[in-house]
Amino acid sequence: MFKRLSVVLALAAAVSAEHSYHSQGLTFQLPVEFSQPAQAGLGAEELHFPAGRSPAEAEIITFVAKAEQVKSMAEAGQSINRYFASTYLGLDWQPEQINKAIIGDLGGRHLVFHSKLDRPCRVDIYERDLKDGGYFGIALRTYESVGEKQRIEIGERLRKSIKLDK
Predict the structure, then answer these.
(1) Beta-carbon contacts of residue 46 (< 8 Å; ≥ 6 apart)
(2) What is the pLDDT of residues 65-103, one digit of tens each?
């Protein structure tokens, strides 16, 4: 009986385990294991789920812009959040939803896109303008193999745990 209880407790701990990540000066936790962050172009990093397997069932893309970059983009007539969505996610249309959201412990925006390019997917972008004029965006791209319940669980844990390093 003790052996069976130990196995059950070990499985419960594995299921509820938090996986911590650090990318682009952001830290966050996820309920499932993603790969470690890797460069995804100039100024962005990405993580894949499941770690070490291809094709990915889900991806997280992080992007952080300093105040100078936000300002120069605005002077050129481009918004930094549209730049992030189009350059790193291939989304050059308006989101289906724009919602106010608590990101970490502060306010921000949650944008929702659906795409049929390449592979059908849903993209949730959690973004926030920073007090110093900077910006960050974290996108969760999930493909059809990720169930709705798991997508929500990953997205909610990501959104609630995002912290900007000081």
Answers:
(1) 37, 38, 40, 59, 60, 61, 62
(2) 999 999 999 999 999 999 999 999 999 888 898 899 999
- Both structure tokens of 138: 């974290």
Question: How many CB atoms lie under 10 A from the CB of residue 98?
Answer: 14
Each residue's pLDDT tens digit, 19-28: 999 998 999 9
Task: Tell me the three state secondary structure of residue 145.
Answer: coil
Give burial (CB, 10 Å; 0-12/13-18/19+) of 113.
Answer: buried
Give all domains of the chain, ordered by start, each with its CATH number.
18-164 (3.40.1000.10)
The pTM of this model reads 0.85
| Integer Cα distance of 63 and 41 in angstroms | 10
